[in-house]
Design a protein that fits this description.
alpha+beta; globular
Length: about 575
Amino acid sequence: MKKLSKIVALYLATTFLLSGCSNTERAKEKVGIQDNMVIENEGTPVENATLKIAYVSDSPFTGIFHQAFASGNPDQEILGYSTNGTFKSDENYRLVNGGGADIEFKPEEKKVIVTIHEKYTWNDGTPVTSADFLEYYKIIAHKDYTGVRFNDDMRNVVGIEEYNKGESKEISGFKTLSDKKFEIHFKKFNPGILWGGGIPYEPVPSHKLKDIPVKEQEAHDITRKNPLSPGPYYIKEIVPGQQVVFEANPYYYKGQPKVKKVIWKIVPSSQIVAALQSGEYDLTVSLNADLYNKVKELKNVQIGVQDDLSYTYIGFKLGKWDNEKKEVVMDPNAKMADVKLRQAMAYAIDNDQVGEKFYQGLRRNATQLMIPAFKEYYDESLKGYTLNIDKAKKLLDEAGYKDTNGDGIREDKNGKPFKIKFASMSGGAIAEPIANYYIQQWKKIGLDVELTTGRLIEFNSFYNKVQADDPEIDIYQAAWGTGSNPNPTGLYGRKAQYNFSRFATPELDSILDKINSYEAVDKEYRAKAYKEFANYMFENVPVVPTLFRKGIVAVNNRVKKWDITPGSNFGIADVELTADAPIK
């Protein structure tokens, strides 16, 4: 349906994809839950009905509706319903023509040419122009910018670092050819550009933002109260943290959406099943996988099922983020620095059991950091970490973590008490049982692990602590949405602020350089480099991927069609409703 940026997915991913496996295992999978990406219902569309969407979350949204500053997925999901649509993608998530802008790739010239649709217009009637894409670059590269978008992909734009350092007043690699056409020149043309790396996924309204200081934009009314949109809808009303009301963009380049009003609301996981049953909502976003069995029994909804571009993982804190150098700095004395300690903890857990017991078959052991959806790069031969208690104990013995007083708990290499602080976020009925399972498994190999703060941590607070390298966090359980670009540099590169484990080595730098090289435009070279990355991260385990996932969406029976097929032309503007209210 829509182009998925890595940022859109970055913080969400709290429910988990089906792992890749051998051909024999794939045949067995067909007995379980299958993809159901197109849902259709009978009925004649009605006029003036309101589409009601439930975002399932136990936390409020932040309300930062600005493409350069939004980072929490609720905010990005809200933006997706309004502003999304500049670039279209195919079934492999590569950028193609046919959206609010077309794109032409010129690898030999290290540039792309973007042509904006002549009717692509902000909801205040102002045309979207080349200046709106240039403004995005100028915001993220500004010295006062405090967000996370100014990453390696963006630094690859010619002249952007000089602009950032104040050495130039313009970004020389951005060439405005006309109001509706521009070029972006790159230092090197890497394959990630084919998926949108280094290219703004959406424009920002230059006519509103150019006179607002960058340091004031995140808190400004244009971000918090009156954001503009060139997409099918714009934000009309906001109930802070809880609800957003959308209305149709009268200037939408494809014509008026079939439904003129959308209400998008936060709904706690404990209330969503009853709310669906009573006909309060048409669609869900981020529906908990552990609710699948309850929702599938409802007669007034159908369930869409699709592989998610995401995985959960357990991360080990191995250093800090240097805010002056804007890069990861490893700490050789970090508590989790010994690779055998990390490997032992990975071998102590059975993620297949977690997927089966807690997620009703919608989750499975994640074997690597390349998800199966990226078929060209997923390494079938890499089996990942699977339960092996004896091997885990042996690794700890070899590393020097031994029980010196016979209490069943290992001391550190110097014979001193060794306690590991584990951060895990709240959300849903199974969050605590899963965290407790991991703690119990680690105790079986003699490790004393306890929850940071003594309890699960609320979503926003959790990521604030993780990103700030809170000293009370040694390990943490989180998740990543990969987005539709398989390039892992934005999550694991030396200059990636999202590299929360703070792991960086010359060897990893070299592998990522291969992934980002011009040579990697060649499919075979690119596939080899991605598999090298997956295997290197498996061996060094700065993070251990735990679960791949399938995502589910509940669709009320008054929704005539809902299509989540990758590369589909169907979008939110195409939704039709066959009754005045959701069917009970």
